[in-house]
TrEMBL record:
InterPro entries listed in its UniProt record: Cyt_B5-like_heme/steroid-bd (IPR001199), Cyt_B5-like_heme/steroid_sf (IPR036400), Fatty_acid_desaturase (IPR012171)
Domain Cytochrome b5 heme-binding: 45-98
The entry's keywords: Membrane, Transmembrane, Transmembrane helix
Protein name, entry field: Cytochrome b5 heme-binding domain-containing protein
Annotated stretches, region: Disordered: 1-41
Pfam family, one: Cyt-b5
Gene3D superfamilies: Cytochrome b5-like heme/steroid binding domain
Comp. bias (Basic and acidic residues): 12-40
Transmembrane residue ranges: 162-185, 191-212, 328-349
Source species, domain of life: Eukaryota
Cross-referenced PANTHER family: DELTA(5) FATTY ACID DESATURASE C-RELATED, FATTY ACID DESATURASE 2
Length: 506
């Protein structure tokens, strides 16, 4: 899946700014200078029908200034209301930074493409029209917050966050053991190494998933890079693409996650597995390293700027990309390269369907008005909980963090999967109070993996379009043959693999 924040680092994840954090802001004048190149509204953000200038506040923001990097001229109303534990406390900040603009309709300030690459947006997408509007005066979230913010519940959540990270360190230790000592001394059979690596990579990706949502302060988010360890994710760009463009706009035309995964269906069926696997290998092998160096270490003009950029480079890398390459090299030196490639293949495809399983992306939906939505109700209805063993604290890792997915979407600011487990009962009780159906969790293998594999691997090659996709070869057996005979389609597939090695697909 290609990256999302193609016009900057794209790191997001606002944290609860109640005056407790200290933003690690960069030089303000330097930030403003960059904004000047982006147009007159480069420091403007749309919230609840009003426009705000955060050119000063972004460097004081406890969640880090990176959150603002590419989200200018977007509707970030949901970021204010859903990504903060007590959003009402933000009112003084908003009043201070509200500005008037010349446009008669404030939504005209919104940039149509949300500063995202065109290939991940639906055809004819226009953010001024297609970004969902939530009614934050509805009572569901107010009732839920009163339960979540209760002192005893907050104590449980803090404890849950601690034990989640402690467990993450244990899983990391197991992963390192399986990849290095176990390979060198041949302590385990090859098939078990494959199984264990798929499990540890999936689990660590779930850890990175939650750290991506944390403040970008270089401290509490120290595990965000592990979003990458399953070869599918890219923390460098998913902090914006996942945190800001998926969670804020879930299952609406603005949800880039749905469009990204439809990319697979543009590949002819017989080539779908080899092409997609080869592209992911290219991104892992050289693509990410080239993209990191391109973004993080470009043209420093002073030692201070160089040292700052180098720190950012190391912070984002966290040696995870080098470690992943070292795992492959070590396996090759120890005569286990075949086992390595097997675990790579199964890790990629397991996690690919793991991510797709989180929502009903494969279901075609009728067009509707995404206005006046109740955030809590909408998220419960459009996110899926999954299970493997039926034990939540184990499944939160085996499902890459998606076991309590509905709680995660309703309360995306929470720092860990264990915190979502602790909060789920309160969410279920609130749903019962408001007569919102709480559907049973789905079996990850039987209800999601197998149907998804059949759908994504057998659906005809197609180009996403509205109201229906355009079939590249047509229908039936003749369509199956024709989609594999189109030279331009095959050439584009090979080009996509090359772009993976170059880092251009991120």
């Amino acid at each position: 899946m290609g990256g999302v924040a193609g016009k900057g680092k794209g790191k997001g994840g606002p944290e609860d700014p109640e005056g407790k954090g200290k933003g690690k802001g960069k030089d303000k004048d330097k930030g403003k200078g960059k904004d000047k190149d982006k147009g007159p509204h480069a420091s403007h953000y749309y919230i609840d029908g009003k426009i705000y200038d955060f050119s000063e506040w972004q460097f004081l923001h406890p969640g880090g200034d990176a959150f603002f990097a590419v989200s200018f001229q977007r509707d970030i109303s949901a970021a204010v209301h859903a990504y903060h534990r007590n959003p009402d406390k933000l009112t003084p900040f908003l009043q201070k930074y509200e500005v008037k603009v010349e446009e008669e309709n404030p939504r005209d300030v919104l940039v149509k493409d949300m500063n995202a690459p065109a290939f991940i947006l639906p055809p004819a997408f226009d953010a001024r029209r297609d970004v969902p509007i939530y009614d934050w005066d509805k009572p569901f979230m107010k009732v839920l917050r009163s339960k979540i913010n209760a002192p005893e519940m907050q104590k449980r959540i803090r404890s849950a966050d601690y034990w989640f990270d402690f467990t993450a360190w244990c899983i990391l230790a197991l992963h390192v053991f399986v990849c290095f000592p176990a390979v060198y001394w041949r302590l385990l059979p090859g098939w078990l190494i494959v199984v264990l690596q798929v499990i540890t990579r999936t689990s660590l990706a779930g850890v990175g998933h939650y750290h991506i949502h944390r403040a970008k302060d270089g401290m509490t988010d120290y595990f965000d890079c592990f979003f990458d360890i399953q070869y599918v994710g890219a923390s460098m760009v998913l902090a914006d693409g996942h945190v800001m463009l998926h969670h804020l706009y879930t299952e609406t035309p603005a949800d880039v996650k749905r469009t990204v995964f439809n990319f697979m269906t543009t590949i002819p069926r017989l080539l779908r597995i080899p092409i997609f696997t080869a592209q992911k290998f290219g991104e892992f092998f050289t693509g990410h390293l080239l993209r990191f160096s391109d973004i993080s270490l470009m043209q420093p003009t002073s030692w201070e700027e160089f040292s700052g950029q180098a720190h950012s480079f190391f912070h984002e890398m966290r040696v995870i990309r080098w470690m992943m390459l070292a795992e492959m090299l070590w396996a090759a030196l120890c005569g286990g390269i075949v086992v390595w490639f097997l675990q790579f293949f199964f890790t990629v495809w397991t996690n690919m369907f793991q991510i797709v399983a989180s929502h009903d992306f494969e279901v075609a939906r009728d067009e509707q008005e995404y206005s006046g939505l109740d955030w809590g109700v909408f998220q419960v209805q459009h996110a899926l909980d999954t299970y493997v063993t039926g034990i939540p604290h184990i499944d939160i890792f085996l499902t890459a963090g998606l076991g309590c997915h509905r709680a995660h979407h309703v309360l995306p600011y929470q720092k860990s999967g264990f915190a979502n487990i602790a909060s789920q009962q309160a969410l279920m009780e609130t749903c019962k109070e408001f007569n919102v159906e709480w559907a049973p969790a789905r079996n990850l293998l039987l209800d999601r993996f197998l149907p998804l594999m059949w759908h994504y691997l057998t659906v005809p090659a197609q180009i996403p379009a509205a109201p229906a996709p355009i079939l590249i070869g047509g229908t039936g057996f003749s369509g199956f043959v024709k989609e594999h005979l189109k030279f331009d389609v095959i050439y584009r597939c090979l080009e996509d693999v090359g772009r993976g090695f170059q880092g251009a697909s991120l």
